[in-house]
Amino acid sequence: MRLHKEVANSSQSLTQKRVPRDLMSYISFNNRVLERHDKLIWSKFYNQCKEVILKKYHNLVHQDYIKGLSSLNFKEFEIPSLEYINEKLEKIEWVAVHVDNFIHPRVYAMLLSNSIFPISGHIRKPEHISYSPSPDFIHDVFGHLPTLFNEKFRNFIKSWAKCAARASVSQEDNLALELTLKLIKEKERDLKDLNIIKNLTKELLDVHKASIKNPSELKKLSRMYAWSIEFGIIGNKDEFRVIGAAALTSSEELKLLHDRKTKLKNFDKTTLYKDVNFTNLQPQAFVAKSIRDFYKVLNLV
After folding, report:
1. Which residues contact 24 (CB under 8 A, 6 or more apart)?
2. What pLDDT does residue 167 have?
């Protein structure tokens, strides 16, 4: 018990040293109670990652993601603690923190710009093992953290974050976030109301359409983030590798790419104007020749 408290205090001390004071209110210091359900989901996804994502779709996965995952050295029956994660991230001078729920994109960007990665405090439900409608612990830990071990990619993430942290925000941005959170909540309910989902989806689409002509800076950057950091693909339309976290933690997304059912387009300024509904599988994606293409579009904002 004493050792547990010492480790927890060590983690809290590290967080307080690294996190800017004005962002501390968004950080959770509560040690998540890892229930049997969580451990079963972790173990099930671990095996899916090993047998499906890394084996069946091996030729689709970026090699640097595989190297990063190896550096983290996760265990099948052990959900990694924040202390364990930070020991691994220490070599690249990043730190992870827990957050309770979905945080505003600007706050998220401010954390990333300080080499701080926010990790969600919940794990997906069993029925969402192959695709989660919301970012969860598995998405963050299995999807994002391995890519940080690629120096070029993590430098791009920080460059994006610095821009997004000071970007202008519109009322439409906040409304879109509010609707997205409601849609996620409804889709994750045990008894889903399909009419509510349909209406929320339409409202969200209408908000997206309204912002196409004159999107805020944060809106453009959020779209670009989705097509590079979440659903990022590098290569060409015939031969490519996936490096985006959302795609890498969804065997369903990878299957669509493998079966060539995802419409692929070149990564260009179009990504600043193309919205994403994270609660659905993506019918299209954008392929960058290299990370330099990400920077080229970033410089347009």
Report:
1. 16
2. 92
Residue 30 has pLDDT above 50, yes or no: yes
Mean pLDDT of the chain: 88
Q: What angle do CA 10, 12, 16 make, to 5 degrees?
A: 115
Q: Collect all residues with Cβ–Cβ distance below 8 Å to 196 and sequence separation of at least 6.
A: 186
DSSP letters spanning 203-228: HHHHHHHHTSSS--HHHHHHHHHIII
Q: Looking at domain 2-163, which of 3.40.630.30, 1.25.40.340, 3.30.160.270, 1.10.800.10 is its CATH number?
A: 1.10.800.10
**CA separation for the pair 37, 256 (Å, rounded):** 28
From the list 157, 165, 221, 160, the residue with the least C-alpha distance to 20 is 165
In sequence order, the β-bridge partners of residue 139 are: none
Residue ranges of E strands in the chain: 95-99, 116-120, 233-235, 240-242, 263-266, 284-288
- Coil, helix or strand for 149? coil
| Contact (Cβ atoms closer than 8 angstroms) between residue 153 and residue 243 | yes
Confidence band for 67, pLDDT divided at 50, 70 and 90:
very high
Q: Is pLDDT above 70 for 291? A: yes
Tokens 């020991």 belong to 87
Question: pLDDT per residue over 113-153, tens digit each?
Answer: 999 999 988 888 888 898 888 789 999 999 999 999 999 99
Three-state secondary structure call for residue 31: coil
- Single out the residue of 300, 110, 93 nearest to residue 217, CA to CA: 300
